[in-house]
Amino acid sequence: MLAYYGSKLPDFIKKNMPTFGTPQLKLLEKLCNVIAVSGGEGEVRKIVLEEIKPYADEVKVDALGNVLAVKRGRAAKHMKVMLDAHMDEVGFMIVADDGEGIYRFETVGGIDPRYLLGKQVYVGKDRTPGVIGGKPVHLMDAGERTRKVAVDGLRIDLGPAGKAKIGDRAGFATKFRRAGPSILSKSIDDRIGVATVIELLKHASSNIDVCAAFTVQEEIGLRGAKVAAQYFNPDVAIAIDSTPANDLPHFDGDENITYNTKLGFGPAIYLADGSTLHDPRLVRFLQNIGDAGKIPYQLRQPGGGGTDSGAIQRALTGIPTVSVSAPHRYTHSPISIARVEDWKNTLALLHAALKKITPEVIAKR
Amino acid sequence: MADILPFLKSLISTSGVSGHETPVAKLIEEKWRPLVDEISFSRVGSLHGLKRGNGKKNRPSVMIAAHMDAIGMMVVKIVDGFLHITNVGGIDVRVLPGIEVTVHASSGEALPAVIALPPSKLLPASADDALDMKYFLVDTGLTPREVEKKVKVGDLVSFANEPLELAGEVLSGHTLDNRASVAALTVCLEELQSKPHVWDVWAVATVQEETSFLGAYTSAFHIRPDIAIAVDGTFAKGPGANGWQTHALGKGVGLCMGPNMHPFLHKSLTELADKLEIPWFLDVTSAHSGTDAYPMQVTAEGIPTALVEFPIRYMHMPVESVSVKDVQRAGRLLAEFIASLEIDFIEKVIWE
Questions:
Q1: CATH number of domain containing A228
Q2: Cα angle B158-B162-B165, degrees, rounded to a multiple of 5
Q3: Is the sign of the CA dihedral B305, B309, B315, B317 positive or negative?
Q4: pLDDT per residue of chain A (365 residues) written in tens, 0 to 9
């Protein structure tokens, strides 16, 4: 069991604070170990529905498969705050049958093909075990041995008696595990966000309507978030995702000036990414909450990439939006690494922010 | 026939990188001890199990050899808590990004870790087109301070993905080259419990095949068998592998012909396989077989040598795949061959 948050936290934050320990990590483990490739989010949806039903006032699954839940506030005049986390992960789709258990596949979402050769996968709803194979190194010439592997030279092999259907989805077979202060797992992007929104919904403060959107198809174009925002029409929105920590050493010892975020430095607040200039009022508000509560946070280096905020901000007549991410290394790979402490502080920052948020935060430009 | 799958799974789940085979050697020793009359280690760490024949004194002997070492990696430098590595044996760099590994730390801990492909902005432009071992980093998820405390240059890094059973009695995992052959030797020893044999049998799990054939050279010299049989994997047909070097997975045992092999031994094995209706295929190598047959043949004054194989898909990847049936068949053929050896067989092993 992990320790409770630091005792230095002000009382207003500590009240109704989500506890943080084994149950939260167990939930994250369960969420990370299932496979939910964009368009086939059923396994995560099932867990989300199970977890939130006792806590939400309204729950629905919409036309795209988003899980949309509301926990109403009790104050006379309260804001609608949309909390967004995407359920889908990058993965594969079976596209052709080569016979004898060998299948061609396409990648779904942005996966660097260099991550694929020699990896274990599960295919379809029954999680049929398979491996991604290609030409063995012994049968190659010198140039071929180091060359980047293209997806069309790879196959998913289910064994000679293996069967899959065209259209079946597949994901990496790696299992969640703990290592010292870290989590090693596939799909930290964005199950860490899903787990965060579940916890925030379970401990919703009564000053606001919490509109929780567990969205589909983020990895292939932020498609679920768009309709979720249009359904909720919130006053403000926070997209909770996981962003790369490129905090590795530079190959020749130069300073690494493109780290994006760093592990262990707390939740990353976004300023600007490939699709969104995050609402400066919300950015400032989150920074103030972090400073007041002595909750560590970092600013994500402005740059490319994006989250569901790209779709939410421009929905309807426009929605003030910000993104917050728990950082992880090795994005869209078979195993990513995140820090437990960063997740804990993400939850603390957001919980504190939701308790303090008022219409004044966005009243003025 | 006893099911060899559980033992094979434990074999590939136990570490034994070339030069550091002790963990797996102990596991094999424990399994073989009740199956042999004497068991010992060579001066360089190969495991020797002697099962005596029932012939008169000064019996001839056959050595069956499978290497127990695994390809792996070694820490060469530590930077900000990240580990730079080099290869031990023939590592396929293309499979390294994003694989699970274990760092066998000097502190005595087995640390779970990941091989990182650093973001391209942190690498030279040339690294975009060609992967190079020197750019990969091993990440344990620990803080730099913890890493400095636990890990030292020279610590080993081994593959750590769990075995996966594929449909059609195929086992997939790392290090099936050549633990599957150790399993075949085990099947052979189990079969010989109820099969009388005249010759002495030396079952040998050799060290350092992947780097220098150290174990096969030295054990063959130590034992001085009358004949030697190496057991190893060959290439299975599969994605990207359909050339003449490749053979169907699950369709039988490979009997290899080439300069490392004595033609009469090869012929005897093929005739026996035909007689027993054990499915087999002919594999050929034009020069170096790349197996323990190569060193054993030239040991001492020369030893007539044969090579028994089975196909492995995705050789040297962490998802090597073998048909468990082929492994059982190889073990059974070895046992039947040993039981068929008459006291004067060696006199027939001649050149035409």
A1: 3.40.630.10
A2: 135
A3: negative
A4: 233 344 456 666 666 677 789 999 999 999 999 999 999 999 999 999 999 999 999 999 999 999 999 999 987 778 999 999 999 999 999 999 999 999 999 999 999 999 999 999 999 999 999 999 988 888 888 878 777 788 998 999 999 999 999 999 999 999 999 999 999 999 999 999 999 999 999 999 899 999 999 999 999 999 999 999 999 999 999 999 999 999 999 999 999 999 999 999 999 999 999 999 999 999 999 999 999 999 999 999 999 999 999 999 999 999 999 999 999 999 999 999 999 999 999 999 999 999 999 999 999 87
The answer to whether A350 and A266 have CB atoms below 8 angstroms apart is: no
CA dist list (Å): A210 to A222, A310, A324: 21, 20, 16
Taking the CA of residue B222 and the nearest CA in chain A, the distance in Å comes to 31
CB contact under 8 A, B318 and A118: yes
Q: Which residue has the tokens 């034009």?
A: B286
pLDDT 10s digits, B116-146? 999 999 999 888 777 889 999 999 999 999 9
Range of the domain at A83: 11-89+186-362
Domain end residue (candidates: A123, A141, A172) = A172
**What is the spatial distance between Cα A128 and Cα A138, in angstroms, rounded to a whole number?**
29
Chain B hits for A246, CB-CB cut-off 8 Å, are: 118-119, 121-122
Scan for tokens 């768009």, then name that residue: A226
**Which class in CATH covers the domain with range B72-159?**
mainly beta
Q: Does B144 touch chain A (CB under 8 A)?
A: no
B145 touches chain A (CB under 8 A): no
Residues A127 and A252 in one domain: no
Residues written for chain B: 352
Q: Which of A294, A348, A286 is nearest to A320 (CA)?
A: A286
User: Among residues 227-286 of chain B, which lie with CB inside 8 Å of chain A?
Assistant: 235, 238-241, 243, 245-246, 249-250
Given B82, B98, B243, which is nearest A139 (Cβ)? Answer: B243
Q: Looking at the structure, do residues A79 and A194 belong to the same domain, yes or no? A: yes
What is the pTM (predicted TM-score) of this model? 0.94
- Domain boundaries along the sequence of chain B: 5-70+174-348, 72-159
Q: Residue A303: how many CB atoms within 10 A of its CB?
A: 12
Tokens in use for B325?
Answer: 């049936």
C-alpha span between B222 and A78 (Å, rounded): 86
CA of A263 to nearest chain B CA: how many angstroms apart? Answer: 10
Looking at the partner chain, which of A147, A162, A182 has a beta carbon nearest the beta carbon of B167? A162
Note whether residue A116 is domain-resident.
yes
Three-state DSSP at A212 gives: strand
Residues of B in contact with A249 (CB under 8 A): 79-80, 82, 118, 122, 137
User: Does the distance separating the beta carbons of A101 and B168 come in below 8 Å?
Assistant: yes
Question: Contact A154/B122, CB-based, under 8 Å?
Answer: no
Q: What is the pLDDT of residues B153-177, one digit of tens each?
A: 999 999 999 999 999 999 999 999 9
What residues of A are labeled active site? 218
Pairwise CB contact (< 8 Å): A181 & B141: yes
CB–CB of B167 and A335 under 8 A?
A: no
Q: Which fold has domain B5-70+174-348?
A: Aminopeptidase (3.40.630)
The pLDDT of residue B89: 94
Which of A105, A121, A122, A131 to mutate to probe the B interface, most B CBs <10 Å?
A: A131
Contact between B129 and A117 using a beta-carbon 8 Å cutoff? no
